[in-house]
Design a protein that fits this description.
The chain has 621 residues and is of the alpha/beta class. The protein is built from 24 helices and 16 strands. Helix 18 links the parallel strand 11 and strand 12. Helix 9 crosses helix 21.
């Protein structure tokens, strides 16, 4: 039976490739989602518990069945415990990413990571100074080693406060101390959450959620912030550069290598290997006109931000990229990589390579990257991709790529503003820009692909609200054409004037998932310039199509930092109205911000505009 592809995705390439996948009898994420329906109602409401083997248990939301698990945990405890474990998993994922980068930095300092180097010495010195490291008269590698050691201390249990929380406004730091949620160690907070949620430990739903804030803050102001800083130090701080997006970025006459995952440690080496003259000569021998690297998900975003590497798609496009028949190799690291990819690739000629010691996948050849072997292994893999070029079958690239600009780090934004946030503050004060929204997060087959991201973005910029985005949301908006200076035609008159004068789009690409911390840093700069807290600013966060535990952690650290956050899909918390009320209302009295859930992006845009106008009124703007 033919499917209605328009119900799955708003993207032209997605609809056409879904049709091809059906013709090729290839199962996609949407097929598997439909096969799961109806999904478990207890799990959807957060009312199922598998913490111990006295269960699994469930609580009846209608009051007709059990109201407690075997141990006596009620709906409030079970829902809070489950949410806490989601936060812990999300925080651990981002923070472990940060740890991997710190280990590479240490390897560079020790001379055991050939091929890697310090690309931004200025940022190295600036971040080292924040850690109290003396830099005058020291060589870069000495500073790098001392900084790596200091950052590793942030992962442990020996500190009262993480180092980089000092970037937050003092008012926000004082609030965290008063509430007892100041993060002390990145691993410590995750470990404590897992302890608290063990059967027979913390059975106070309020205290569980309060520690959830602390755990998430250890991600946002710890692990993720370290990941972004070290990526900038090792690979360069992003600056605006032209790029393009959708499956049209693949080249029929070139070897196409797709990088997928989140950690740039692997993809940077792959990109470097693709510039090797010997390998380029081999590609020519095989009949290819070159080697083309394209990205999907956040590994792609990392390369886009620093090198202008084009994006073939976001989370829900990963299988469809393979269905083009043009991908000669897909190289993955970790996070958001569907185990089904190996099965889909087997229907075509694509070689699938997994590279991380902590992430293996069915149907993929495992070739493990470490700092000491990354340079040579990258060359081996690129050669194998070139050899695979002649094994191609039918190639189907049905669309032309859409141009975009990426690379808007905080440093790049401040440079565009003359080195200070004051011009942005002036534009907000005058009303030409009403406020700013960070649109972040994944795709989810429960929501038509990219519809939430693109619709919300369109409604905000046409109402003079600046949008910054990361991750899959950033790719969606690039495909929609919002990331070129000419896109100011979609903007309201005030935003159009400001962006036009600066020569920037109304939607700024801020990077990958961990780069959400760039939004925190920019918000803190604005708050400090105005001598207010982050919660006083006319700014909002939104995740219209989120799906992962990482997104839960991001949302909680945004709210914990004072940013009103609007979610598309409902988290699994509706089994406890106490938890729902605390997260959507009560947190306003605790941290000055709360969550809202609105799956309709048209309605979400109204909620966001109302919030921004309310904050403007309180500031007297």
């Amino acid at each position: 039976m033919s499917k209605t592809y328009e119900n799955n995705t708003i993207t032209e390439d997605g609809q056409l490739l879904l049709k091809k996948a059906e013709k090729d009898q290839v199962e996609t994420v949407w097929d598997r989602y439909n096969a799961q329906l109806p999904q478990c109602g207890y799990c959807e409401m957060g009312l199922s518990c598998r913490v111990c083997v006295m269960g699994p248990c469930r609580v009846d939301p209608f009051g007709e069945g059990p109201q407690q698990g075997v141990c006596g945990a009620d709906a409030d405890i079970i829902v809070a415990r489950n949410l806490g474990r989601m936060i812990a998993a999300g925080a651990a994922s981002h923070s472990d990413h940060g740890r991997d980068l710190v280990e590479v930095l240490a390897g560079v300092a020790e001379g055991t990571a050939p091929g890697y180097e310090i690309r931004d010495a200025e940022k190295l010195r600036n971040v080292a100074a924040e850690y109290g490291i003396e830099t005058d008269g020291k060589e870069e590698l000495v500073i790098a080693g001392e900084l790596a050691d200091a950052m590793q201390e942030d992962f442990g249990t020996r500190k009262k406060e993480l180092t980089l929380v000092k970037r937050a406004p003092e008012k926000r730091q004082e609030l965290w101390r008063k509430l007892g949620v100041m993060p002390r160690g990145i691993d410590r907070e995750t470990s404590e959450m897992m302890h608290r949620t063990h059967m027979g430990v913390d059975n106070g739903w309020q205290s569980l959620l309060l520690h959830g804030i602390r755990n998430a803050l250890s991600d946002g102001w710890g692990g993720s912030m370290i990941a972004t800083d070290v990526s900038d130090i090792l690979f360069g701080t992003p600056a605006p550069a032209p790029t393009s997006a959708n499956v049209g970025v693949l080249k029929e006459d070139q070897v196409n290598i797709i990088v997928h995952g989140h950690n740039p440690v692997v993809s940077e080496m792959i990109l470097l290997a693709c510039q090797d003259n010997e390998i380029l000569g081999l590609a020519e021998e095989k009949g290819a006109k070159g080697i083309n690297v394209a990205g999907v998900c956040c590994t792609g975003n990392e390369l886009l931000m620093r090198h202008g590497v084009a994006m073939a798609g976001n989370h829900l496009t990963t299988e469809l990229v393979l269905a083009t028949g043009a991908a000669d190799m897909m190289i993955v690291d970790y996070q958001c990589i569907m185990p089904a990819l190996g099965t889909v690739a087997a229907c075509y000629h694509t070689k699938m390579i997994s590279t991380s010691d902590k992430a293996r996948f069915p149907g993929m050849e495992h070739r493990e990257f470490h700092p000491d072997n990354a340079s040579e292994l990258a060359k081996e893999l690129v050669k194998e991709a070139v050899e695979n070029f002649e094994n191609r079958g039918e190639v189907y690239l049905p669309v032309e790529p859409v141009p975009a600009i990426g690379g808007f780090s905080v440093e790049a934004v401040l440079r565009a503003l003359g080195g200070t946030p004051q011009p942005l503050i002036d534009a907000i004060a005058s009303g030409k820009i009403r406020g700013a929204v960070g649109i972040v997060g994944c795709n989810n087959p429960k929501i038509k692909q990219d519809y939430g991201h693109v619709t919300l973005t369109r409604r905000l910029i046409e109402n003079d609200i600046l949008v910054v985005d990361t991750g899959c949301a950033a790719v969606a908006n690039a495909k929609a054409g919002f990331k070129i200076p000419e896109a100011i035609e979609f903007a309201g008159p005030g935003l159009k004037e400001i962006c036009g004068s600066l020569g920037i789009p109304p939607v700024l690409h801020f990077g990958s998932c961990v780069d959400n911390v760039r939004i925190l840093v920019l918000a803190s700069a604005l708050a400090n310039a105005l001598n207010v807290d982050i919660s006083d600013l006319p700014i909002v966060a939104a995740a219209p199509e989120w799906y992962s535990e990482k997104a839960i952690s991001i949302g909680v650290y945004a709210v914990g930092s004072g940013i009103y956050t609007v979610l598309g899909p409902m988290p699994p918390i509706t089994g406890s109205m106490n938890v729902v009320k605390l997260l959507t209302e009560g947190l306003n009295d605790v941290v000055g911000a709360a969550f809202a859930v609105e799956p309709d992006p048209e309605k979400a845009a109204v909620l966001i505009r109302q919030h921004i106008e309310g904050k403007r009124e309180k500031l007297g703007l």
